[in-house]
Design a protein that fits this description.
Layout lengths: L5 E4 L3 E2 L6 E5 L2 E4 L3 E2 L5 E2 L12 E10 L4 E8 L14 E7 L23 E4 L8 E3 L13 E9 L4 E9 L5 E3 L6 E5 L4 E5 L17 E11 L2 E10 L16 E4 L3 H14 L12 E12 L2 E14 L8 E12 L5 E3 L19 E4 L4 E3 L2 E9 L11 H12 L7 E8 L4 E5 L4 E5 L2 E3 L3 E19 L19 E7 L17 E17 L4
Parallel strand pairs: 1-30
Antiparallel strand pairs: 2-33, 3-29, 4-28, 5-27, 6-27, 7-8, 8-9, 9-10, 11-12, 12-13, 13-14, 13-15, 16-17, 17-18, 18-19, 20-21, 21-22, 22-23, 24-26, 25-26, 26-27, 28-33, 29-33, 31-32, 31-33
Amino acid sequence: MSQQPIPVGTRSQLLVDDYLIAASEGLATTLHPMMKHPAPVLQAEAPWERPEVGGLYGVPHALYDADDGLFKLWYRSMGTFPFRNQQKEPTYHCYATSTDGLNWERPHLGLFEFEGSTANNIFSAEGQAPNANLLDCLEMSGLEPPERRYKTSIFLGRDAKGYGSHGVSFSADGFHWQPYESNPVIGGYDRADMCNCAKLRDTAFPEHLPGVPDAKYALFPKVHIQLGRFRRRCFAMCLSEDDFGGNPFTQWSEPHLALAPDLRDDEMAEERLATAKPILLRDHPDDHHCEFYGVVVFRSGDVFLGLVWIIDVAFELSRIGGSNQYALVDVQLVSSRDLLHWERLGGRQPVIARGAPDAFDSHMIFYHSFPIAVGDEWWVYYAGFNEGHAAQWLYDEPMRRQYQEDVKAGRRHFQKFGLAKVRREGYLSRDAGTAGGTLTTKLLQPGGPRLEVNATVAEGGALTVEVRDDQGHALPGFASADCTPVTGDSLRHAVQWGNLRGDDSWPDRPVRLQFHLRDAALYGFRFAEGAG
């Protein structure tokens, strides 16, 4: 049983993959898709949002500011969908706030004049404002310049070959953005117009994770590579290389391919398109395939989770002289321990699924934000579309007029922003029925003398934990039979063994955990500080 213990500290340990697991018997792995709020939380209403032509555009980015007690939302408005922006009207970058995350207000920022007035929530038009997700790095105060609290990537356009480049931009307040003077920071990648940011560590996660490169930040640009008959969107990863040398988020490594679709993705795209055939505007069976439009990556405990935009292509616009694809989009879950090797989770089923045919999000789910912790839940804000990707290039003028009439009559929808929720740290669980089951971890190096578990135990069920030494023997007083059964539903069940809450020696010795479950779901665990 010789094995180097895995250092787990006091961080949450999610059981989304098998990295921590030595053995599992009688357990099923369950994906928990996000549950949608019953109605959209934001739709085009203000004149600058052009509600008559579906003016919410792009993907929202939301965060919660604990100092202000506000949910904050950055988004764009432009009258394009399903209408081409023939008048070349500008894109407006807008900002909304909410005290509860459900009811949103458009504060008058006084920053931008629209039709003779600054009484609006516009902070920029076009320019170098965010066109991807953004990072709020307040926890880096004192370590990084205050004018770089907010960070984002910006798309700088394509060259004659169609190759895109990206720069970065900084802001002290989220409204006034200053592009980096040495942009672009990455480029030369085929049509790479999407590039999301990620924080790899901050004050909540000060420890360096084994196998993870020594950087604070990463970028995940979209790239195109040839796979089979199609040149496909995939996502790559590059790291900020001067994070500890005085100029973070400016010097980047060359992007390396992180994840690309495979044959199983194409098979599942075929199945999904067959189911969705009644809502497809155009379809050709020879064009069916899967691509990855983008990814949002965030750290949870010791694992990186990624929410991947899965694009199921139904029709190649090259058939009618175009250069894009008509497609449907939803979101799947992946995980990684090193940012380069990614594992597909939940049987590749959607974690944010498209809605019913008459729903505002029936055709596409676009997603930029990191999950926001609200009580015992993670909240995600997304953009929902009632038509497919690049559909505007398939609409003629009579079809556009009909679309407008259908919207007025409530039969169709323009783009709206929705909210989806899931249990905090609860995308996947290891479940046992009445017959029970066990999960045994690999050798772990705890960071605290107590144990907490994130679990749901049904009425009549139970969960117990046995703590073992490096030879696999139960520690005295910490056998499964000594454990007070965990019952109920909590993110932080405190495990006890009779009168014992743990052992102060655990941080100085490697241990294994064996979980015994009956009618229970185990999401994860953590060692906690405090007296054992």
